Amino acid sequence: MQLTMLKGKIHRVTVTEAKLDYVGSITIDSDLLDAAGILEYEKVAVVNVNNGHRLETYTIAGEPGSGVICLNGAAAHFFDPGDTAIIMCYCQLDADEAKTHKPKVVFVDGKNHATRVTNYEKHGQIA
């Protein structure tokens, strides 16, 4: 049996751009991708904290250290610059692997730079 588990999460980033005239995807500062263990072109779920929209797309690595979070193509209809988003990536594990698996959770500052990387989050607590 395979279980779908959280692999990596970038928590509460600020959307910097939304570009309709693009094929699709989300461009993410490559430093954030690395910190969360998310690969370029990997499937992610993106949640807009401001309006509740949730979508799936794939990642494109942005300039390291830039703080870029850009929704491209159709996804740009659901996100505006300044919106807060959560980006999540999942993996498939067997039951034994799932017992010890710990996701990477990246917390950011107001400029989308990683301030803390952990593998634990407690319900109801952001700090």
TrEMBL record:
Heterooctamer of four alpha and four beta subunits. This is Aspartate 1-decarboxylase. The keyword Amino-acid biosynthesis does not apply. HAMAP family: PanD. Is synthesized initially as an inactive proenzyme, which is activated by self-cleavage at a specific serine bond to produce a beta-subunit with a hydroxyl group at its C-terminus and an alpha-subunit with a pyruvoyl group at its N-terminus. GO terms for molecular function: aspartate 1-decarboxylase activity. Substrate binds at T57, G73, A74, A75. Its EC number is 4.1.1.11. Keywords: Autocatalytic cleavage, Cytoplasm, Decarboxylase, Lyase, Pantothenate biosynthesis, Pyruvate, Schiff base, Zymogen. GO terms for cellular component: cytosol. It is found in: Cytoplasm. Pathway: Cofactor biosynthesis; (R)-pantothenate biosynthesis; beta-alanine from L-aspartate: step 1/1. InterPro entries: Asp_de-COase-like_dom_sf, Asp_decarbox. Binds 1 pyruvoyl group covalently per subunit. It catalyses: L-aspartate + H(+) = beta-alanine + CO2. It is an enzyme of class 4 (lyase). Catalyzes the pyruvoyl-dependent decarboxylation of aspartate to produce beta-alanine. GO terms for biological process: alanine biosynthetic process; pantothenate biosynthetic process. The lineage of its organism: Bacteria, Bacillati, Actinomycetota, Actinomycetes, Bifidobacteriales. The active site is at S25 (schiff-base intermediate with substrate), Y58 (proton donor). The modification Pyruvic acid (Ser) is found at S25. Its cofactor is pyruvate. Belongs to the PanD family.
